[in-house]
Amino acid sequence: MKAARGYAAPSADSPLNYYSFERRDPQPHDVQMEILFCGVCHSDLHQARNEWQNTIYPCVPGHEIVGRVTAVGNSVTKFKEGDLAAVGCMVDSCRECENCKAGEEQYCDHAPVFTYNGPDKHSGTQTFGGYSDSIVVDEAFVLKVPTNLDLAAVAPLLCAGITTYSPLRHWKVKKGQKVGIVGLGGLGHMGLKFAHAFGAHTVLFTTSPNKVEDALKLGADEVIISKDEDAMNKHALSFDFILDAVSAQHDLNAYLNLLKRDGTLTLVGAPEHPLPVSSFSLLFKRRQLAGSLIGGIAETQEMLDFCGTHNITSEIELIKIQQVNEAYDRLLKSDVKYRFVIDMASLKENAAA
Prior knowledge:
There is one protein chain. This protein folds into two domains: 2-157 and 315-352, Medium-chain alcohol dehydrogenases, catalytic domain (Quinone Oxidoreductase, Chain A, domain 1, Alpha-Beta Complex); 160-291, Rossmann fold, CATH 3.40.50.720. It contains twelve helices and 17 strands. It has helices spanning 42-48, 98-101, 151-154, 160-170, 188-197, 212-218, 229-233, 252-256, 279-283, 297-310, 324-332, 347-352; strands at residues 2-8, 17-23, 30-40, 65-72, 84-87, 90-92, 113-114, 134-138, 143-144, 178-182, 201-206, 222-225, 239-244, 259-267, 288-291, 316-320, 339-343. Strands 3, 4, 5, 8, 9, 16 and 17 form a seven-stranded mixed β-sheet that branches. Strands 12-11-10-13-14-15 form a six-stranded parallel β-sheet, covered by helices on one side.
C-alpha cells in the first residue's frame, strides 16, 4: 500500500479538510499516477454535502483528473512511466454486459464504478477521487492526454467535456444544422465550443445579458436572452438540436417549441425537481426529449484527441486545494468562469505545515 494525501469531506455539514489514506500498489493491469490537476464539478459539491443521499464518508471527491504516470503493472501495454494520463468519472464496470461490450460503460447494467464514492473491490470500502496527490486505476479506464494542450485546462474535459461532446456526436450535429446550447456554465461553455467546432450554426440561450460577450467569444453565432419572449418566438420551429445544460428549474416547453419536426432536446443538466412537459410540445412535430450521461471510455479518448487536434480546452480558474471550500461557495453562486481546477501541487503546503 502507498500513503496518499488529499482533501475529504468528513460529513455532510463539514468543510473539506486535509486527509491521509492509502492507495493500493499497482496490480498487473494498473496504472499509478501522480495527480497534477483536478477539476471541480458541481457533482463534487452534491456528493460532499450528501444532496443525493448516497454519500459514504469520508468522501474524497474529484473525477476530472490529469496527471503523470509514476508506475505501471507488468501487464500494462498502453502506458509507461512518465506518460501524461487522465482519469474521468469511472474507474471500472462489469465489462460483460451489452452496454460495456458496446463501449458504453457509463450505462453498465450493473452500474459503473465511479471514481469516488463507488464500491472499491480492492479495498472493500469506497473509491477515493482526485482531490489527492495520487491514484491507481486499471489501464482500461485510463486515458491519453494530448501533449499540446494546457494540462490544467484539460482536466474539466474529463467530465464537462465528454458530457457535452457525447450527445452532440450521438445526435450527429454537423455543418448546416442549427443547434442551441442552453446555459453558459461549466457544461454549457464546452457544449458551445464543440457545437461550433462541428460546424453547426450555434445559438446560446442565457438568462444573463452580461454573458452575451463571452458567448460570442466562445463560438456562438447568436445569443438569445431566454427571458425575452419575442426573441424566443422569432426562432420557433428552426432548431435541429438543442442541448440543455441547466440544472436549475426552467421551462422545457419553451425550448421544445423551437425545434423543427423530428428535432431533439437533450438534457445533460439535472434539475433537483421534475420538469413539466406538455405532450403537445412533443406530439405535433414528432419531437424527442432525451438525456445523456457522460460518455464511454473510447468516446472520451476520441473527445480528447479531437480537442488536441482543434486546440479546445475548458475556460478555467486555477485554485489551490486550500481554497476548495471557498470554491464550493462560489460555485453555488455561479461565480466562476467557467470551471475551477485545483493545482494539486498545493497539497505540499499542508505537508509542510
